[in-house]
Design a protein that fits this description.
The protein is of the alpha/beta class and 415 residues long. It is 32% helix and 11% strand. It has ten helices and seven strands. A seven-stranded mixed sheet has the order 2-1-3-4-5-6-7. Helix 6 packs across helix 8. The chain is globular, with a radius of gyration of 27 Å.
């Protein structure tokens, strides 16, 4: 065999040996071998830290989350988050009066990140006609940056790993704020010997006719379908994420549970809960169940199969507005929300405020009225975390599990 042939036979093995030697040298010296580096894959469907996203109305945006209970002596007693409570950007609100508070339930931790797209006052469809823009659960886009929550979800989910979407919607489609206003106005304007109830007013009963309930159910079902469409458009299979639908909690007790008599004016002037007993009973026995049953039936009507239900109807029982088991700070001998026992002795639902919101210097907003406050938001957050269930979402009924705080939150259980 010629020397040339021998060289050709040995050329490939020698080249390989030289390459392996160079690679071994790089590895043992700590230097990086000169190998191709794959491009980093951007976060998106199935990639990156899992996100929980909230959409819907004031009961999930964090409305009233600034206040941990109520006081008529000093707002400082209950001011848990201060004047920047509703800032969702470093300099203010991204959408004025959406009141996406820092106490909002979506920030559950547990290995997830949270994104709050909900807006106080939101209905199933966007309302761009008023002073404040109220994005609904639709694909509204005015071309100037104002978009509906379904479109916002689609945009966010395209570049983030959204695993669970939590929704609260329907209350405003039943004209919740108008009903409360009517009930309080009737209480203030009629004497105890000639009570003017709200539950039989035509403006109130019109919201609970079978035809209106059917119409609202259809709108809620469409809103749920919009969320599914948003996620599909963002690249998600239906099985890749869960829609956690929450019902509404009871904000006031039945007649027997009030700590203020319905006669006189203390029920509203002191407690901020101006309802006649009969109207309070109706709210808990008729209005709330009708709204919550409509939300539940809308799930079936929507055809979505990747849903779970978080039942909040009795989540605040024992800590509701004007309930005899709790009180104002001054009634309980407390002067700060951070004092031991404050979470168990003060209310988890914000007062219905009228006169105290009269002036620009007031720290209160009328729209905070009758919403879960700081304690209520954190209590719900605990139940959302339990519903997340380490990435295998489940539904259940959320109730108080004990006194005191656990990890800074009220003790709650999901069953």
């Amino acid at each position: 065999m010629s020397s040339t042939a021998t060289w050709r036979r040995l050329a490939a093995p020698v080249g390989v040996l030289l390459l392996l030697a160079a690679l071994l040298s790089a590895l043992t010296s700590g230097a990086a071998p000169l190998l191709p580096v794959p491009a980093a894959r951007a976060d998106g469907p199935g990639v990156g830290t899992p996100y929980v996203v909230s959409v819907g109305d004031s009961y999930i945006s964090g409305e009233a989350g600034r206040w941990a209970g109520s006081s008529n002596v000093s707002s400082s007693y209950a001011d848990a988050l201060g004047s920047t409570a509703y800032w969702d950007t470093p300099t203010g609100e991204s959408t004025a009066r959406c009141h996406r508070s820092k106490a909002a339930e979506v920030f559950i931790g547990a290995g997830t990140l949270g994104k709050n797209l909900a807006c106080s006052g939101a209905r199933t469809t966007t309302d761009a006609s008023g002073t404040y823009f109220k994005p609904g659960l639709d694909f509204y886009d005015d071309g100037a940056g104002r978009i509906g929550q379904a479109k916002a979800l689609q945009q966010f989910a395209s570049s983030n790993n959204v695993k669970m979407v939590v929704v609260s919607i329907g209350g405003n489609d039943f004209n919740f704020a108008d009903i409360v206003t009517t009930c309080v106005a009737n209480w203030l304007s009629s004497p105890s010997w000639w009570k003017n109830y709200c539950h039989d007013d035509s403006s109130v009963t019109a919201n609970f006719t079978s035809s209106n309930v059917t119409a609202v159910r259809t709108r809620i079902a469409t809103a749920f379908q919009n969320l599914r469409t948003a996620m599909r458009n963002a690249g998600y299979a239906d099985s890749a994420w869960t829609l956690l639908v929450q019902t509404y909690p009871s904000p006031i007790p039945n007649a027997s549970g009030f700590r203020y008599a319905e006669t006189g004016y203390t029920r509203q002037n002191t407690g901020g809960c101006g309802f006649w007993n009969a109207d309070a009973n109706w709210a808990n026995s008729t209005a709330l169940p009708t709204i919550n049953n409509t939300v539940r039936s809308a799930i079936t009507a929507s055809g979505l199969t990747n849903t779970r239900v978080l039942d909040l109807a009795s989540a605040f029982t024992g800590r509701r507005l004007c309930e005899s088991t709790v009180g104002l700070y001054e009634e309980k001998g407390l002067t700060s929300w951070s004092q031991a026992g404050a979470v168990d002795r003060t209310e988890w639902v914000n007062q219905i405020r009228t006169v105290s919101t009269c002036c620009s210097s007031s720290p209160y907003y009328i729209q905070e009225s009758l919403h879960p406050n700081y304690w209520g938001q954190l209590a719900t957050r605990s139940c959302v975390r339990q519903a997340w269930n380490a990435g295998t979402p489940r539904g259940g009924t959320c109730t108080i599990a004990g006194t005191g705080l656990s990890g800074g939150e009220p003790r709650m259980t999901l069953r």
